[in-house]
Amino acid sequence: MNTRIIRKIFYVYLAVLALFLIVKTNWSVQGLVNTISLARDSRAAGGWNINLVPFRTIGSQVALFPSGYAMVSLFGNILLFIPMGILYRFSGFEKGGFIRFLLLTVLYILLIECIQFVSMLGSFDVDDIILNVSGALIGYAWCKVLASKKE
After folding, report:
1. Helix 82-90 and helix 97-119: axis angle, to 10°?
2. Residue 121: which residues within 8 A CB-CB, separation 6 or more?
3. Who wins on pLDDT, 65 or 45?
4. CA 26 to chain centre
5. By Cβ atoms counted within 10 A, which residue in 2, 38, 51, 112 is the most buried?
6. Dist. CA 1–CA 37, nearest whole Å
């Protein structure tokens, strides 16, 4: 497939992914207002929607296994980002190498986490960054392995 088309698909994927991660299930104005209101009340009471301790959230999710929420949270944060690694590899950006991919991926995820925190539509969670980057790396590595098998 043409790299131009794949790049367009990649950009659409990034935009839809950002919208999904920021808005989540609050697809109504009232849902968004309620989420922001709850976060504002939590902040007023001293609770901030932030986790900077690695594996805190992941550990609590693992403890809840096999509950539906824990599985969706853990695996969803990985699965949603596998296409990022795949699309990046096929979009012609690969010329920048692995370090560029990793840097751009981390910056994109940090931006999403910061938007969630500032907008009060979600939380800034270092564990989300770990899981999201893991998913992107799985997609990237998968393509690398497939490419090496073709040679």
Report:
1. 140
2. 22, 23, 24, 26, 32, 35, 36, 39, 115
3. 45
4. 17
5. 112
6. 46
Collect all residues with Cβ–Cβ distance below 8 Å to 66 and sequence separation of at least 6: none
Peptide bond between residue 83 and the one before it cis (omega within 30 degrees of 0): no
How far is it, in rounded angstroms, from Cα 44 to Cα 33?
Answer: 16
Residue-level pLDDT at 12: 97
CA distance 14 to 9: 9
Using CA atoms, how far residue 19 sits from 3, 23, 59, 115, 124, in Å, is 24, 6, 27, 11, 16
Domain residues for the domain of 49 are 3-150
Task: Write out pLDDT tens, residues 10-49.
Answer: 999 999 999 999 988 667 888 889 989 999 999 999 998 8
Task: Look up the pTM and report it.
Answer: 0.91
Dihedral sign (CA 11, 15, 18, 20): negative
Tell how many helices (H) and how many strands (E) occur in the chain. Answer: 7, 2
Number of structural domains (the chain) is 1
The label of the residue with tokens 């902040």 reads 43
